[in-house]
Each structure stands twice: as C-alpha cells, then as structure tokens.
Amino acid sequence: MQQINALKELLQTPKKIMITTHHKPDADALGSSLGLAGYLLKKGHHVQVITPSDYPSFLNWMSGNDRVLIYSPSTDALAQQIIQDAEVIFCLDFNHLGRINELGKYIEAAKGVKVLIDHHLQPDHFADIMFSNTSAAATAELVFEVIRDLGDEALIDVNIGECLYAGIVTDTGSFRHASTTRNVHMIIADLLQTGIDICKVHRNIYDSYSETRLRFLGYVLKDKLTVVREYNTAFIAVTSDELKQYNSQTGDTEGLVNFALSIEGVRFAALFIDRPEAVKISFRSVGDISVNEFARAHFSGGGHKNAAGGISYQPLNETVNHFVSLLPLYAEQLVN
Ligand code: 5GP
Ligand code: MN
Where in the numbering of this chain does the DDH domain appear (predicted)? Predict the structure, then answer.
C-alpha cells in the first residue's frame, strides 16, 4: 500500500517515463512493458520502452511494438539520453541490473525514480519503489494489480489487455504451472471483459513457426536430445553451426527445453545454446528441485524455482560435461 501511494504521488503529474525489461525479452517481459506503457500513455505521460536486445518476431503484434527502441551500438547515444532525461524508470520482469546489459550501468547512474515490478526470486534492491512478488505467476499479473490498485482498472482496454494476457499465458505455461492461482484466473476473467481475442494471441505466439524453425525442432528432437535416465535428467545442446544451418532467428529456440522436460519420469531439463558471446543455458524442473539455486550455484544465473537460466564462458562441450558431472551431487533430489 505504501508503495502504491508513493507511485500514485509520483504519477500525479505528467512525467517523462522510461520502461525497460530483461535481455532477449519474452512475452511476459515485453507484454508487461507494453501493457504498462499503454496505460501510462493514457494517463498523459511521455513514455519510451527500451529493450536491451531484440526479441522474437512472434511478439511483434503487441500494441506499442512500433515505438519500442531496441538497444544496439547504433542506438546507444539515444538510449543514454532517454535514460538520463527520464523522471521515472520502470524495471520490469528482472531482478538485477546485470540482466539488462549496457542499460544496467546507465540506469544505475540515472537520477530518475526507479520502480521495480518483478516476480523473480532474490531481487537486488536497486529500485526506490519495489513491487516484487515472487509468488506471482507473471510480471504482467503484477502490472495488472498495480494499475488496479492505482484505481485505474477501467483504463485497461483490449490493447493493454492482450499484452498482459500474453505475459500471463506464457509464464504460466498456458495455465498449467503451479503458479496458476485463483487470482490469475480472476485477472484473466477481468481481461476477457475488455474484449481480448485469446485465439489471436495464442496463434500469434504458439502457431507462427517459420518452416525452418519447425524443421529445426524436428532435427533437435531426433538427433540432439540426451536422456540421462540414471538421474531423471534430459538435455539438449545446440552448436553454433546448427544455429547457422537452420538460419536460427531470435526466439527460434524458445520452448525447446520444455520438450526435454515432457519425457515421462524426467524431472530436470536443460538446454545449452552456443551463442557468439557465451553458452546460454535454460533450466527447467518439476516439483521441489530448485533450478534457481542450481543456476545460481553453478552457472551465474537464476530465475524461478522451476524455470531459470544461466551462462557459461567455457566451450559448449565442456559446459555440457560440467553439467553432467554435477548431477550426482543432486542425486537425492533427482532420483528419490
Ligand atoms: P529462459 O530459460 O526462458 O531464458 O528463462 C527462464 C527464467 O529464468 C526467466 O524467468 C528468466 O528471466 C530467468 N533467467 C534466464 N536467464 C537468466 C540469467 O542468466 N540470470 C538470471 N538471473 N535469470 C535468468
Ligand atoms: Mn516473467
């Protein structure tokens, strides 16, 4: 309540506002950012969304997408200027400034009031106003609640609604993860009231594969999946040559890790992608196995209990070998 009052006070008069979210934004990152942007624009603020990197083309349909500034060396000066000038800086769907690349140091030095809205575990305390709820299913759920608690639920229209819905539907795994509470469904009911087209949103996100992406999926499942039965673990490792061969675009590897987890008996899944800058890793688990802890302990990462990510600067094969060598340490959780 204190945080809502502080935010209400801050937004009393039109402000220059900058919104950002994590590297390689997913539907919750971009949907919560554009949903919030749509609301703040309606309230008469000046709003600029800046993403630290590009994002999948299956998110391009969101209202406000055309006005997003994607950070790159060529937009660096403009991004710096916007961050310097911002009176309010919203940080959505990430828990520490290391998750937003170069933007992190600019925001750290910025004079604007920083507002965090996030649901990741163990958030850093870099913001002046914090809405951190680690049991929320999605940041979009929290954005809905913030707008509602500011007394403005009536301003949530179909465009804002579809952005928020996209965030919630993806982060709940289409309403199947344990985070899918009554509260989530109540919010969805309210969003449906605005006239959102859920068929359109699902088709845009899940049924918009390019032909090469689908063939890449087929190749990976047939040839690249390793199952370590002894530890109820499955993983996929994709080389940079394979990414090139299938002309892989941002977002093309999204969801791959879930196939590894969908094998009967598998409790722990990992996806290793050999990116130019480092090996990017996704972890997923079922039940009590905390991949947040695993990613933090061994791969400089973090996230949620059952969905986390990390990074490795070792070659792909060494990274995978290291991962496999760690499994016996977790035998108790993985096997019993
Ligand atoms: P994904 O595997 O889909 O990229 O990410 C799963 C979850 O872990 C997301 O909530 C994402 O924000 C978080 N995550 C992914 N990579 C990292 C990372 O390198 N560091 C941290 N702290 N979180 C990550
Ligand atoms: Mn999220």
Answer: 16-168
Ligand 1 neighbour 309 (Cβ under 6 A): yes
Q: Which of 21, 22, 142 to mutate to test the pocket of ligand 1 (most atoms within 8 A of CB)?
A: 22
How many angstroms separate the CA atoms of 304 and 292, rounded? Answer: 5
pTM over 0.95: yes
- The tens digit of pLDDT for each residue in 93-105 reads 999 999 999 999 9
Q: State whether 34 and 160 are in the same domain.
A: yes
Task: State mean pLDDT over 77-106.
Answer: 98
What's the residue count for the chain? 336
Mutate to test the pocket of ligand 1, among 23, 55, 119, 120 (most ligand atoms within 8 A of CB): 120
Parent domain of 240: 211-335
At 258-290, the pLDDT tens digits run: 999 999 999 999 999 999 999 999 999 999 999
ipTM above 0.90, yes or no: yes
Contact call for residues 305 and 319 (beta carbons, < 8 A) = no
Q: Pull the structure tokens for residue 252.
A: 């093309």
| 260 and 123 in a common domain | no
**Strands 225-228 vs 233-238: parallel, antiparallel or unpaired:** antiparallel
In this structure, the answer to whether residues 278 and 135 fall within a common structural domain is no
